[in-house]
Amino acid sequence: MQQRGAIEMSITTVVVLVLGMTMLILGLGLVRGIFGTATDSVDQIDQKVKSEIAQLFSDDQQDVVILLGKDKTASVKANDKPFGIVIGARTPDGASATAGRLKLQLTLDDSSTKYCLVKLGKTKTEALFTPQFGKDLEFDEFDAANAFFKIQLQVPDGTIECSQKVLVDIKDTTTGQPLGRNSFIINVVKPGLF
Protein backbone atom coordinates (compact mmCIF):
# COMPACT_ATOMS: atom_id res chain seq x y z
CA MET A 1 0.00 0.00 0.00
CA GLN A 2 2.88 2.40 0.79
CA GLN A 3 4.49 1.73 -2.57
CA ARG A 4 1.30 2.64 -4.39
CA GLY A 5 1.18 5.95 -2.48
CA ALA A 6 4.80 6.65 -3.36
CA ILE A 7 4.10 6.07 -7.07
CA GLU A 8 1.08 8.38 -6.97
CA MET A 9 3.16 11.02 -5.20
CA SER A 10 5.94 10.87 -7.82
CA ILE A 11 3.44 11.01 -10.72
CA THR A 12 1.80 14.04 -9.09
CA THR A 13 5.22 15.69 -8.72
CA VAL A 14 6.02 15.12 -12.41
CA VAL A 15 2.64 16.54 -13.47
CA VAL A 16 3.12 19.60 -11.26
CA LEU A 17 6.63 20.16 -12.67
CA VAL A 18 5.39 19.90 -16.27
CA LEU A 19 2.53 22.31 -15.59
CA GLY A 20 4.92 24.67 -13.79
CA MET A 21 7.39 24.69 -16.70
CA THR A 22 4.55 25.29 -19.16
CA MET A 23 3.29 28.24 -17.12
CA LEU A 24 6.83 29.63 -16.88
CA ILE A 25 7.32 29.48 -20.64
CA LEU A 26 3.94 31.08 -21.32
CA GLY A 27 4.68 33.75 -18.70
CA LEU A 28 8.02 34.59 -20.30
CA GLY A 29 6.30 34.91 -23.67
CA LEU A 30 3.74 37.28 -22.18
CA VAL A 31 6.41 39.38 -20.47
CA ARG A 32 8.34 39.57 -23.73
CA GLY A 33 5.23 40.76 -25.54
CA ILE A 34 4.42 43.40 -22.93
CA PHE A 35 7.88 44.70 -22.11
CA GLY A 36 9.55 44.14 -25.47
CA THR A 37 10.51 47.11 -27.57
CA ALA A 38 7.57 49.40 -28.02
CA THR A 39 8.31 49.84 -31.69
CA ASP A 40 8.99 47.58 -34.57
CA SER A 41 11.84 48.04 -36.95
CA VAL A 42 10.78 49.24 -40.39
CA ASP A 43 12.28 47.26 -43.25
CA GLN A 44 10.79 49.23 -46.10
CA ILE A 45 8.59 52.24 -46.71
CA ASP A 46 5.40 50.57 -47.92
CA GLN A 47 1.79 51.74 -48.11
CA LYS A 48 1.14 50.72 -44.48
CA VAL A 49 4.04 52.87 -43.23
CA LYS A 50 2.88 55.80 -45.38
CA SER A 51 -0.64 55.47 -43.96
CA GLU A 52 0.64 55.39 -40.38
CA ILE A 53 2.70 58.54 -40.98
CA ALA A 54 -0.27 60.28 -42.62
CA GLN A 55 -2.27 59.46 -39.47
CA LEU A 56 0.52 60.94 -37.32
CA PHE A 57 0.35 64.18 -39.34
CA SER A 58 -3.32 64.58 -38.46
CA ASP A 59 -2.94 63.38 -34.83
CA ASP A 60 0.14 65.44 -33.92
CA GLN A 61 -0.65 68.54 -36.01
CA GLN A 62 3.02 68.73 -37.01
CA ASP A 63 4.80 68.88 -40.35
CA VAL A 64 7.61 66.58 -39.15
CA VAL A 65 6.76 63.20 -37.59
CA ILE A 66 8.68 60.09 -36.56
CA LEU A 67 7.14 56.62 -36.66
CA LEU A 68 8.19 55.39 -33.20
CA GLY A 69 5.19 55.59 -30.89
CA LYS A 70 4.25 58.31 -28.42
CA ASP A 71 7.58 58.47 -26.57
CA LYS A 72 9.64 58.39 -29.80
CA THR A 73 12.08 55.91 -28.30
CA ALA A 74 13.55 52.80 -29.90
CA SER A 75 15.33 50.06 -27.99
CA VAL A 76 17.95 48.69 -30.37
CA LYS A 77 19.78 45.49 -29.48
CA ALA A 78 23.55 45.34 -29.85
CA ASN A 79 23.43 42.33 -32.16
CA ASP A 80 24.46 43.59 -35.62
CA LYS A 81 20.87 43.33 -36.93
CA PRO A 82 19.55 46.35 -38.85
CA PHE A 83 16.82 48.49 -37.27
CA GLY A 84 14.84 51.01 -39.34
CA ILE A 85 13.13 54.25 -38.32
CA VAL A 86 10.99 56.30 -40.72
CA ILE A 87 10.68 60.08 -40.69
CA GLY A 88 7.85 61.83 -42.48
CA ALA A 89 7.57 65.46 -43.53
CA ARG A 90 4.91 67.32 -45.47
CA THR A 91 5.02 70.50 -47.46
CA PRO A 92 3.46 73.42 -45.60
CA ASP A 93 1.46 74.61 -48.61
CA GLY A 94 0.10 71.16 -49.53
CA ALA A 95 1.92 71.14 -52.87
CA SER A 96 3.55 67.94 -54.06
CA ALA A 97 6.73 66.95 -52.31
CA THR A 98 9.35 66.44 -54.97
CA ALA A 99 13.00 65.48 -54.95
CA GLY A 100 15.06 68.39 -53.66
CA ARG A 101 12.17 70.40 -52.20
CA LEU A 102 12.44 69.15 -48.61
CA LYS A 103 15.81 68.45 -47.02
CA LEU A 104 16.59 66.94 -43.67
CA GLN A 105 19.58 67.13 -41.39
CA LEU A 106 20.39 64.84 -38.47
CA THR A 107 22.28 66.04 -35.41
CA LEU A 108 23.40 64.15 -32.32
CA ASP A 109 22.20 65.90 -29.16
CA ASP A 110 25.12 66.62 -26.85
CA SER A 111 23.16 67.97 -23.85
CA SER A 112 23.72 64.96 -21.56
CA THR A 113 26.80 63.13 -20.31
CA LYS A 114 24.79 59.89 -20.36
CA TYR A 115 24.43 59.88 -24.14
CA CYS A 116 26.30 57.51 -26.46
CA LEU A 117 28.08 60.56 -27.86
CA VAL A 118 30.04 60.79 -24.59
CA LYS A 119 30.30 57.06 -23.82
CA LEU A 120 31.27 55.87 -27.32
CA GLY A 121 32.64 59.02 -28.90
CA LYS A 122 31.36 60.92 -31.91
CA THR A 123 32.82 58.65 -34.59
CA LYS A 124 31.47 55.40 -33.12
CA THR A 125 28.06 56.91 -32.36
CA GLU A 126 27.67 58.28 -35.88
CA ALA A 127 28.77 54.89 -37.27
CA LEU A 128 25.66 53.30 -35.71
CA PHE A 129 23.55 55.20 -38.26
CA THR A 130 23.55 54.78 -42.03
CA PRO A 131 22.82 58.40 -43.04
CA GLN A 132 25.51 61.01 -42.51
CA PHE A 133 25.16 63.65 -39.83
CA GLY A 134 25.49 67.38 -40.41
CA LYS A 135 24.62 67.21 -44.13
CA ASP A 136 21.46 68.09 -46.02
CA LEU A 137 19.88 64.77 -46.99
CA GLU A 138 17.31 63.99 -49.68
CA PHE A 139 14.11 62.16 -48.81
CA ASP A 140 13.76 58.59 -50.10
CA GLU A 141 10.13 58.51 -51.25
CA PHE A 142 7.27 60.89 -51.97
CA ASP A 143 3.49 60.61 -51.88
CA ALA A 144 1.54 63.78 -52.74
CA ALA A 145 2.57 66.43 -50.15
CA ASN A 146 4.36 63.86 -47.96
CA ALA A 147 8.04 62.86 -48.06
CA PHE A 148 9.58 59.84 -46.32
CA PHE A 149 13.10 59.06 -45.12
CA LYS A 150 14.37 55.83 -43.59
CA ILE A 151 17.15 55.86 -41.03
CA GLN A 152 18.99 52.57 -40.67
CA LEU A 153 20.73 51.65 -37.41
CA GLN A 154 23.08 48.75 -36.92
CA VAL A 155 24.59 48.32 -33.47
CA PRO A 156 27.60 45.97 -33.38
CA ASP A 157 27.86 43.12 -30.87
CA GLY A 158 29.58 44.21 -27.69
CA THR A 159 28.51 47.87 -27.86
CA ILE A 160 27.97 49.20 -24.35
CA GLU A 161 24.48 50.18 -23.24
CA CYS A 162 23.73 53.86 -23.77
CA SER A 163 21.07 56.26 -25.02
CA GLN A 164 21.25 58.92 -27.70
CA LYS A 165 18.85 61.66 -28.68
CA VAL A 166 18.88 62.52 -32.38
CA LEU A 167 17.55 65.87 -33.62
CA VAL A 168 15.82 65.95 -37.01
CA ASP A 169 15.62 69.34 -38.74
CA ILE A 170 13.64 69.77 -41.97
CA LYS A 171 13.79 72.77 -44.27
CA ASP A 172 11.80 73.76 -47.33
CA THR A 173 14.22 74.72 -50.09
CA THR A 174 11.58 76.68 -52.05
CA THR A 175 11.09 79.16 -49.21
CA GLY A 176 14.48 78.69 -47.57
CA GLN A 177 12.67 78.46 -44.23
CA PRO A 178 12.88 75.70 -41.61
CA LEU A 179 9.83 73.46 -41.73
CA GLY A 180 10.23 72.05 -38.25
CA ARG A 181 12.23 69.99 -35.80
CA ASN A 182 11.51 66.69 -34.15
CA SER A 183 13.64 64.19 -32.28
CA PHE A 184 13.87 60.58 -31.24
CA ILE A 185 15.89 58.57 -28.76
CA ILE A 186 17.64 55.28 -29.27
CA ASN A 187 18.50 53.05 -26.34
CA VAL A 188 21.28 50.59 -27.09
CA VAL A 189 20.49 47.46 -25.07
CA LYS A 190 22.20 44.11 -24.67
CA PRO A 191 20.60 41.30 -26.62
CA GLY A 192 18.60 39.03 -24.34
CA LEU A 193 16.97 35.66 -24.70
CA PHE A 194 14.26 37.08 -26.90
Written description of the protein model:
By secondary structure, this protein is an alpha+beta fold. The protein has 2 domains: 1-35; 40-189, Immunoglobulin-like. The chain has 4 helices and 9 strands, in the order ααββββααβββββ. The protein has helices at residues 2-35, 47-60, 116-119, 122-127; strands at residues 64-66, 73-77, 82-90, 102-108, 137-138, 141-143, 146-154, 162-172, 177-189. The protein has a 5-stranded mixed β-sheet with strand order 2-9-8-4-5. Strands 1-3-7-6 form a 4-stranded antiparallel β-sheet, covered by helices on one side. β6 and β7 (146-154) form a beta hairpin. The radius of gyration is 23 Å and the shape is elongated. The termini are far apart. The mean pLDDT is 85.
CATH class of the largest domain: Mainly Beta
Strand content: 25-35%
Number of helices: 4
Describe the strand arrangement of the main beta sheet, using strand numbers: 2-9-8-4-5
Oligomer: single chain
Helix amount, in percent?
25-40%
How many structural domains in the coordinates? 2
How far apart, in Å, are the first and last alpha carbons?
Answer: 48 Å
Structural class: alpha+beta
Spans of 5+ residues with little confidence (pLDDT < 50)?
none
How many distinct beta strands?
Answer: 9
Would you tell me which CATH topology of the largest domain applies? Immunoglobulin-like
Q: What would you give as the CATH superfamily of the largest domain?
A: Immunoglobulins
Could you give the order of the helices and strands?
HHEEEEHHEEEEE
Bulk shape: elongated
Level-2 CATH architecture of the largest domain: Sandwich
* Rg value: 23 Å
- Overall residue-averaged pLDDT value: 85
**Main β sheet profile:** 5 strands, mixed
